[in-house]
Amino acid sequence: MRLGIDIGGAFTDLVAFDEEEGEFIWVKDETTPLDPSKGVVEAIKKSRIRMEKVDMILHGQTVVINSIITRNGARVGLITTRGHRDLLILQRANRRDIYNFTYKKPEPFVPRYLTFEVDERIKSDGTELEKIKDKQIIQILDKMLASDVESICISFLNSYVNPAHEKEVKSIIEKELVKRGKNIPITMSHEITREWGEYERTNTAVLNAFVKPKVSNYLTKLENEINNLGFKKSYYSVLSNGGISLFNFAKEFPIFSVESGPVAGVIGGIAIGEILNERNIIVLDGGSTTTKASLIEGLNPKVSSDYFVGRDKFNPGYPIKVPVIEIEEIGNGGTSIAWIDEIGNLRVGPMAMGAEPGPACYGKGGKEPTVTDAYAVNGLINPNYLLGGEMKIYRNLAVDAIRDKISNFYKISVEEAAEGIIKIANENAADTIRIISIQKGYDPRDFTLIAHGGSGPMFAPFIAQELEIGKIVIPVIPPGVFSAWGMLITDIRHDLLITNVIEFTRESIKSINETFNEMDENILRLFNVEEGIDTENVVIMHYGDMRYKGQEHTVKVFFGKGKIDEKDYTILIEKFHATHEREYSFRLDQSPVEIVNFHVVGVVKMQKPRIREIEDKELQLSDALKEERIVFINGERTILPVYERSKLPINHHVQGPAILEDPTSTAIVLENQIFLRDKYGNIIIKKRR
Amino acid sequence: MADIFTLEIIKNGLVVANEEMFQAFARTAKSPVIYEVLDFAVGMTDSSGNLVAQAPGVPAFSGVLDFAAQEVIEKWENDLKPGDVIVSNVPYKSGTHLNDVTLALPHFEKDELIGIILNKGHWSEIGGMAFGSWNPNATEIYQEGIMLPCVKLYSEGRRNRDVIEIILENSRLPQYTLGDMEAQVASMKVASKRIHRLVEKYGVDNVKLAMEKLIEDGEKYSRIKLKSLPKGVFEAEDYIDSAIANTEKPVYVRASVKITDDEFVVDFTGSDKQVMSPINSPFPATVSGVRETYMAITDPHAYPNGGFFKPLKVKAEMGSIFYPVKPAPTSTDWEAIAFATELVWKALAPYLPEKLPAGHFLSIVATIIGGVNDLTGEPFAIVEPQPGGWGATSNSDGTSGLVACGDGETYIASSEVYEKNFPILVERYMLNTITGVGHGKYRGGFGVVRDYRILNNEALVTIQVGRHDYPPWGLKGGMPGPGNKVIIYKNGNQPMEIRRISADIFRKGDLLSILTSGGGGYGNPYEREPMLVFEDYRNGLITADEALHIYGVVIENDKLNVEKTMENREKNIKGDKKWML
Predict the structure, then answer these.
(1) Residues of chain B numbered 475-534 and touching chain A (CB < 8 Å)
(2) Is residue B199 in some structural domain?
(3) Predicted TM-score (pTM) of this structure
(4) Does domain A71-215 have CATH number 2.150.10?
């Protein structure tokens, strides 16, 4: 049995799949922020799962990202190359907020007085220009210890080509620490990434050093607590690349788990796509405060190292060069606040009410009108059926909030104002999809929209109509545990990326094969040492980040699984031109082509739990019909049928408009759409022909 | 007519169309200056040339697109046809420098002109006396490239081959020029298609209404913001270094800013005449410079369309440095544009000190290092601005190592990438604690030291250093910054300070050392929190000696002595250093 544990800000979700019984178990409990392992133990007890039956535990957490965002981590000392002490302050010198004359850059995670320069130099071809002097390193260590440094980071210029100096300094410091009976964790930049760009690489390594003591303590504590419940096997952490890895690796390199939570939702979406044989999908996660979206082509998530924490339209954020599944997020969700700006235009978000006190209609003291209030006012959600009726909705409070704050201002009816809020929220959500598709050269019409989360199924039909997306899938897995469910199906995965600029010609095939071969050995060693896995079970894939010589931007090209020969060369060069044309709209057949980064992915496929087919009880549509409800839509009151999702007949097409309910979420189907419940219980909504 | 919320969706549709045009061009252009530096702007106007929406990649483009649209409408009047694309780059009436080429696509629905779609991008090559088409030694515009005087590049969908051949024949990099031009046209078509789709869905009248509403919204918001500004007439003056202006005396520049309840008028009258150096700021560029400060003091996140800028009026004398006429060269116009921005800023800074800091390093110290790589036999060229220090505000220190006001989301390249791609070694790239900052209650941000060691047998260096003689100004008793400085070390390390060189020959082992200025300070240094002074000392930004002599702060054995600091400050204020307060 596989057990997935997802710790979010508010809730801890637990999902298990029993292969023998073919059964899912899920439990939701409150997160205990001071000691998250407590909440986990509670949830496990609540689930009554027998830990002896569990083969592996898969864990997604927000400890890494929270530690960074709240700046609650270790005191880091940084060692770098002479002349480059200020790389964390200088960053890339860009002014992202271009009209703000009091613009401030993100504050570095290491102050200048804890940054130390070493007289050393490696050139860009990897040759040594100036040697390390042991004495200087020991002096630096003395200063660090005098300043109570808790975690050390070493990052030298050009270490992506030749890391010898980083290793040398580490070994000097380690020896010295042993001598002094001290134990301080050390992070070397080249261990985290071999990509060029000293600021980005150093910042990544510094953040690893920053979160390391905290994360490693946390994971150790969790292991101890769960071991006490009788679990004897292995623990895995969800990585940002959508794979998993043993806790040992996560403790040593916690920065690889920076987006451990959200990626699991994307993996869940991919699994649904796999089952339905939809290979090009957009996964939409409509949450309570934000909407997230990720585009997946050919069932392969886009994994890149262009990731930032805290980046938005006006803030550059902190670059983190680890492989992360690309996810776009905007502040627009079910509890987003509707407000009128200074010139009288209606806006929705990015401020949100969250769970406490929540929308006005929750009756917990919230006074601001939210998207959920608009749904309640117009009859799109059932006042007696939130969380299956556990939570009551007060429509009158929603009416008050929208009347006081919105409709009085415009001198229109409350229903009209509510519809305005819904329209703007839908438009915001559609913008998220535009950003990941149209603005990146993809046509959203070529994709299937997989919508989960509390508000995902409410946004999706409108988005599909606006962007002419032909098909929507609303998964059978409940929104609350979708991410935890996604974890159960992740594979063990590691990525290695090395910058090694080389012209892609027939003559360079040999050295390209050599580079990949060396990386293969490294990644297999990683699987062997860190994961204890037989190397023959590892599937290796090669990618090249390629570009036209003289350009900065690269495109990722799949090189296959092994050595390439002259015949492959012809295919690959054409593949590069074609990919470049798709992403950048032009090709330069005469221009020389370069590989900039070599990217090797190693995967050990896990056995996938299947979604069981539902027994066809030969239900009738009338069995599912709960009521005919008066709703306000398209500027008028109409009567819509409301169906209980789990009672819908299988594979039976029904014309919209309609409302579909289940205990954890509501979906709306529009007039020009049709829907059905498939054999797994997923809802499929299509454009009416 | 559409309801208010549907109108809101159409407005978003127009803004998104513009955003998609921006992304499409950034993605498809061939020149790094477009997709890395974002040295371009896109936008659309209504049928009279009022800016409905725009997305400038750099602030210097925020004021030029409406001029370009108006020129198109004026010149072509009834001869505009669906499928036309007009090209222009002449600076004086509608442009900036010749590299910035504007394409305009009139958008028609049936036979009605709805608006003009625009894309202005920096072409890497447009001919002229120097590679890249800009050169600090130019004395007239004919040395800076080919002029395209608002002519048709496409007529009713057909490419005008004659014009295109003339352009390509005049470019050193015709492949790039053609590629960028095609990408510009393609991106405008993206926007045109989106607008057409909105018309199909909501009707042409509603789309026109949404355009009107966007402009109205901008104006309404601008007027609200204008109300909160101080009222009256505010003035500032400054000088541009003679070394970059190619003049005997420094160039005098001044601005008077008159703010009333419904107008914001900037008048540059009294500023010196245009110069025989390419630093002249064409009038549309001057307007851009002023718009940037207007955004900074009203709302930096406001949507910068024509309505928003309606209360803003800019005046300058024809033939002056802020309104040059033919044949004034303008290829390094950023130097004077920055003064247009900073004069308005300087005039208002004492009254809006939380929004407007003290002076910044201003001159981007534009640098070119080029040649033929000994190892590969291929040509190489580094072309880039330098970051520097910004001024302090009434509540915070200035930001260190940031690109100047003329740049925006402009990334300074990684030293590792440079060393791999070019035969140089970046020996130092760090905060400039050597010449330092303007001290004060809050101090300026630090500039940078950037040392390039040449590893090639030969390299040609072009550089232009402004804000040296007249350094970044302090505010309310804060001290000025040190000014920008460039030192070269040739032939066995003989240092020599330089201000303006063009294609100067460097040899293997020679060093180019750039020290950009720190920003100006705010307030009396004696009022600075002793703890902040100590932090600067601990961080190695100032010495104990500086702490004592500039700030009156006593640091002994790496520790702050608060008592002695109080005593010392008291004594000096009473004694002969009283002038400092």
Answers:
(1) none
(2) yes
(3) 0.93
(4) no
